[in-house]
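Hi R.,

Here are the chain sequences for the assembly we discussed:
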Amino acid sequence: MKSSNSLVKIDGIDKKILRYLMEDARRPILEIARNIGISGAAIHQRLRKLEASGLLSGSKFVINPKALGYTTMAYIGIFLDKAMSNPRAVAALEKIPEVLECHYTTGNWSILIKVLCQDNEHLMQVLNKKIQQIEGVSRTETFISLDQQIDRQIRI
Amino acid sequence: MKSSNSLVKIDGIDKKILRYLMEDARRPILEIARNIGISGAAIHQRLRKLEASGLLSGSKFVINPKALGYTTMAYIGIFLDKAMSNPRAVAALEKIPEVLECHYTTGNWSILIKVLCQDNEHLMQVLNKKIQQIEGVSRTETFISLDQQIDRQIRI
DNA sequence: CCTGAAACTAGACAGAT
DNA sequence: ATCTGTCTAGTTTCAGG
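And here is the predicted structure of the full complex:
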């Protein structure tokens, strides 16, 4: 994988291929090939090149957590004691499966995390029995997402 | 698609299949089939069932935005005037490609969004010339993510 | 809920432009 | 450097247990 601070150049064909596959990673390559007007093999070669360049970092099946009863999403801003290092806090947060994202942020907090819980009671337990129990966490601020209204990737 | 408030039941085989494909949506089904010990056709039938149940909401190619020069990620809390309705604000935000997520939140702000920009100057322009220009946006608070240290889906 | 067969597609290679 | 044709292995559907 190429160093990711060298910018990758992509042409119109690459963009078309990526737009198809960003929507549906299992879309048949030959179907894309027919739409674009090149052979399937050419698409495979371009995809290999894009992967080698570091632009393509993989593919994922997307799960709908609501179908499993996970309906409460929240952002939590975390204040850390001066003595607590960020890497140690992240290591502790990684062990909590409800934590889906963790950002090292400027501004009010040391850390901003996104958590996904079954309901408010579950969220309360994650806060009180998991997050607040981490050594060095002094205070938290919670923002419940009543509805996620936009969720997308960068536009190509 | 089934109503998503009825909980989906999945067994151990479904979980194994999902864990493989959540990591890599293009992983060969037959490879998974051999690892689990059932036929490829059986996996396809299970996947169709999971999709019909609403648990599987699709698959995506994942792009590394840094390779395209997008290195500045930030969360922005937005205060809306009483007169501004949430849906109209979301409609305006949808037109801004740098906005990747939008959450209707409890707490301080009316809306919390995630934006991805090339650099700090680009972020400043998005803030001043796009977000703040939206009618009904009274004030914003910006938190730059210096580093996203965790990024994952729900654990199955 | 599973398997096996049939038709189609993915992914890799050699070779042409 | 990027394309095409071809070949093996994988995907996906369907009839049937």
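The helical segments of chain A are 12-23, 29-36, 40-53, 86-94, 120-131. The mean pLDDT of chain A is 95.

Let me know if anything looks off.

Best,
T.
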